[in-house]
Amino acid sequence: MSDSPHHNQQRKPTLSSSSVFFKLFSDPIKIFFRNKHVLIPVLLFFTLPLSFLVFSLSLTSRPLKRHIFHLESVAFTSSTRVEADHILKESRYESLSLFRLKLLYFLPSSILSLLSFVATVHVTSHSHRPSFLTTADAFKRCWKRVLVTSACSYALLLLYVQLPQLFYAVFRNHPRINLPILLIGSGFEVYLMGVLGLGLVVSALEEKFGWDAFRVGSELMVGRRVCWWWVTCMLVAISGWIGNRFEKITDGEDSVKWVVMGWETVGLWWFYGLLVIWSLMVTTVFYCDCKRNHAPNGTDLTEITA
Questions:
Q1: Cβ contact 1:289 at 8 Å
Q2: A single GO CC term, please (predicted)?
Q3: How many domains does the chain have?
């Protein structure tokens, strides 16, 4: 995307889906090695610590989650109302402990996530070789927009995930209806994640934030929504596989031993850190390509081209 657009009135050529996929996979690799002087420190000091916090929270919160689920299942099958109320009271106490544990991880995770996001998007989106100074300057300019947009993203996702659960509860006695609801709800959730992720990149690179950034991101996806949906599905599937694999190898009595000494756990920790950076780079490359595709002929995009 480093070539300047042609100053003519011809329509821009449209890449095929296979070309778009190849570009999204190949360009981040090229950009990473071209800007390794910035991205490797970002990986070591921001993304890997973030990955460690995510894995640590998953491990430390698992006993509490299982205990809460056990208490709730016992309460619903309890024979007396007094016993059920007592068990649910204990469940609420454990839920409060879980909430406090998540709050403990929230601040450092948010800071590392914000630093990783802004640095990776800035480095990926510029054709020239960025330095630490230009990356720090980019962070000063856009961190407030990214923070507000991120809060809107979480709120929208939390609101949406309640809808499939509501429909599932209403039609729980109709399995033929529940399955389509589950499939459609999951598919749209992935699409929503793709739009919100692109909106976050918009908030980092443009003077837009919140719902306006999501609107711009959705408009940029015109003509490539299905392609971006598949890419988002792939990223979600890889992330889910990492989480499931980590849960399996750290489950049981020897979980501490696996975390401290397990080579597979260390590999998953690095793999997740690399996946975070790679997914941010893929999203930024997709944004830059869509931006170039939608820009009028003659528009100068040299400052935001991957």
A1: yes
A2: membrane
A3: 1
